[in-house]
Amino acid sequence: MKITTKLWIGMAVLTVLSPLGLFLPEHFKAGSAWGEWDVDEIENLVGYVPKGLARLSTIWNAPMPDYALKGWEEKGLPHLSLSYIISAVAGIVIVSALAWLVGKILAKKGE
Amino acid sequence: MHISDGYLGPPTSGFFYAVMLPIWAGASRIVKKTLRVKQVPVLAIGAAFSFVIMMFNVPIIAGSTGHAVGGVLVAILIGPWAACIAVTIALAIQALLFGDGGITAFGANCFNMAFVMPFTGYYVYRALTFKTSADSNRRVFAAGIAGYIGLNVAAFLAGVEFGLQPLLHHTATGQALYCPYGLNAAVPTMVGEHLLIFGWVEAVITALVVRFLQKQDTELLVNTSGGK
After folding, report:
1. B57, A33: Cβ pair inside 8 Å?
2. Are the Cβ atoms of B52 and A11 closer than 8 angstroms?
3. The CATH number of the domain where B83 resides is what?
4. What is the number of domains present in chain B?
5. Which of B65, B85, B165 to mutate to test the interface with A (most CBs of A within 10 A)?
6. How far apart are CA A37 and CA A56, in angstroms?
7. Domain of residue B217, residue span
8. Chain centre distance of CA A69
């Protein structure tokens, strides 16, 4: 088996395991990463919402915020983990296709 | 350490876009000269690996979360310039599609995770593996150390970028306009978390994959291109 095939299998395993990245922080009540709080969390932490932060924080509406499908955010952990896996698959496909395309355009010919 | 929109003032965001533009241009120029056609699949896998490994949030009990980035591993396999492109693509999709890391902060996030991290880790690895064979144990340890140092340098920079904001932008009454925490809070927290927990995750992952490749196919460990 080619080494790249083995690495892709590894990637599939990581995809299936990816909800661990959701469960573990949830289980240990770890909260947000430092500096990645939303506006409400900031207000709880420092007592006010910095004005510029409030204005800029809504500049972009991502289609799948926090690796969750829209409308599934409140449906509990099974739905969240499924949308986490779907996000991982979508991300891996898009990222690797883009990188492959950029690589194809840039790579030296004839070797 | 994905900086979100709103945490950096526009001057800081603009500064890092300005810094990254020539780096991206240089990366595509150098990769054009050095990347071999058969390395393209590794570039694609490297970018995807960096994307998915960042989804593995590791908790600090009742505190915070963080994750590995994979930037040093990708640099070991395809060189730091190609790694810069790979991690930039991963960060772009995270920001655009999943709102992980800001659009305005994209330049800064790329500077930390797609530029400084792979380059630092790559040169640490190169220095530690000087004149070693591709299957030597030293390479495994070197990869771990390089991953650890690379992630921590990136975390330090993110801490500085966060921490400068209250100094640069505040109201007359002293309220911050963007990130409300100064250097005295941001730098020790970012660096502390990564020195204690997340750096070790990066180290173990980087070392394990290098060990796996030594067993499977050392070719990927000797064909590093770019930045030589």
Report:
1. yes
2. yes
3. 1.10.1760.20
4. 1
5. B65
6. 14
7. 10-222
8. 11
Give the separation between CA B115 and CA B9, rounded to whole angstroms: 21
CB A63 within 8 A of CB B94: no
DSSP states along B171-212: -TTS-BSS----HHHHHHHHHHHIIIIIHHHHHHHHHHHHHH
Chain B residues lying within 8 Å of A91, measured CB to CB: 48, 51-52, 55, 93-94, 97-98
A63 CB near a chain B CB, below 8 Å? yes
- Write out pLDDT tens, residues A20-62: 999 999 888 888 899 999 999 999 999 999 999 999 999 999 9
Kindly determine whether residue A99 and residue B85, on different chains, have CB atoms separated by under 8 Å. Answer: yes
Helix spans in chain A (H): 3-17, 20-27, 39-46, 51-56, 77-106
CA distance B7 to B41: 36
Report pLDDT digits (tens) over A60-87: 999 999 999 888 777 788 889 999 999 9
Quick one: which H or E segment has residue B64? strand B64-66
